[in-house]
Design goal:
single chain; 7 helices; mainly alpha; globular; 169 residues
Length: 169
């Protein structure tokens, strides 16, 4: 019972810190300190925080040394971007996010079932190979991904506030 009260207090402190940071960033935006470059930088920082937390879950909590994390991120990012390009609406963007999670999750499951039996360096080599296969697929699938040039004119539906909320979640 005592441990639970400590956990609630700990979570409440983090919630207050998150709210204060959000309020501070909002004030900075209102005053004009946050220009478009800094807002875009906050979005990129938020994306990388989400990626790092996911990597910490695999390496830090599960104790598995995986190097394929970026490949699954690329699958999700390209899925969301392609769907958003085909149908540039907010509803399609939200659907694209769910589809991106589903596709990258199913691919991770398909890769994870045989490779998670491996340990140590062997798992790292196998997941690195999967990430490289994903990269080569993206580069060579020019009809959909535009090859090495990447995708252009993706509608911007995410601002720093949305990215901040996803980081907090």
């Amino acid at each position: 019972m005592i441990g639970m009260k400590v956990n609630i207090k700990y979570n409440f402190i983090w919630l207050v810190l998150i709210a204060v940071l959000f309020a501070l960033l909002s004030v900075l935006q209102t005053v004009g300190v946050l220009n478009l470059f800094l807002e875009q930088l906050l979005v990129l920082i938020s994306i990388n925080i989400i990626l790092a937390v996911g990597l910490n879950l695999v390496i830090g909590v599960a104790g598995q040394f995986s190097l394929g994390h970026a490949g699954f991120m690329a699958i999700g990012a390209y899925t969301a971007a392609i769907v958003t390009l085909k149908s540039p609406t907010y509803l399609a963007f939200i659907a694209a996010l769910f589809l991106a999670v589903l596709i990258s999750g199913l691919l991770a499951l398909a890769v994870g079932i045989p490779t998670l039996r491996l340990k140590g360096d062997y798992l790292a080599i196998a997941t690195l190979g999967v990430a490289e296969i994903i990269r080569i697929f993206i580069v060579n699938f020019e009809g959909v991904t535009n090859g090495p040039a990447g995708l252009f004119s993706i509608p911007l539906y995410v601002n720093w506030q949305v990215a901040f909320v996803f980081v907090a979640l």
